[in-house]
Write a structure and sequence with these properties.
With about 140 residues, the protein is of the alpha+beta class. It has three helices and six strands. Strands 1, 2, 3, 4, 5 and 6 form a six-stranded antiparallel sheet that branches. The radius of gyration is 16 Å and the shape is elongated. The chain starts with 6 loop residues before the first strand and ends in a 5-residue tail after the last helix. The model has no long low-confidence stretch (mean pLDDT about 95).
Length: about 140
C-alpha cells in the first residue's frame, strides 16, 4: 500500500549529528521528526508558542521507532508525515527517506495529547487546524 503523505520537507544531515561510526546518532532522528511537525504546524496556521499562551500545550505521550537504513554526513533526505486521530490523541506517522535512492531510513509513530489549562483534554483549535489532513 502506498502511503498518503500530507506534508514533506527536505533536510540534510550535518556532520555533527553523526556518531563515531559515521551514521546519524539515533536521537537526531527525533529532532528531524519534531522539526517536521513544527513546519507542518506552521502550514496549518498554528504556533506552539501562541497555543501555549492560550493555555493549550501539545505534548508527546508515546513514540515507537524503527531504524532502517542509516543516514550519513551530507545525505539529503525527505521527511514525510501522515496524521491520524485516536480519541484525543493525534498520531503523527513519520517516514524519512534518503533522497538519493528513496530508501526508507527511519519510521516513527508519535502520539501527541493536549494539556488544556493543566488538564488532559481535546483541543478544538488543533482539531480545526488538522481537519483538512485528518485520515
Amino acid at each position: 500500500m502506498k502511503e498518503k503523505y500530507i506534508f514533506e520537507t527536505k533536510m540534510q544531515v550535518r556532520d555533527y549529528e553523526c556518531d563515531i561510526e559515521g551514521i546519524v546518532n539515533n536521537a537526531n532522528y527525533l529532532h528531524y521528526c519534531e522539526h517536521t511537525r513544527h513546519l507542518f504546524l506552521k502550514q496549518c496556521g498554528l504556533s506552539f508558542a501562541e497555543m501555549h499562551e492560550k493555555g493549550v500545550d501539545a505534548v508527546v505521550a508515546r513514540m515507537s521507532m524503527q531504524f532502517k537504513t542509516p543516514l550519513r554526513p551530507d545525505d539529503e533526505f525527505y521527511s514525510r508525515l501522515r496524521l491520524t486521530k485516536e480519541g484525543i490523541k493525534y498520531v503523527f506517522h513519520h517516514d524519512l527517506f534518503r533522497a538519493s535512492d528513496e530508501k526508507l531510513s527511519f519510521r516513527a509513530q508519535v502520539e501527541l495529547v493536549c494539556i488544556v489549562n493543566g488538564r488532559l483534554s481535546g483541543s478544538e483549535d488543533y482539531d480545526r487546524a488538522f481537519a483538512p489532513w485528518m485520515e
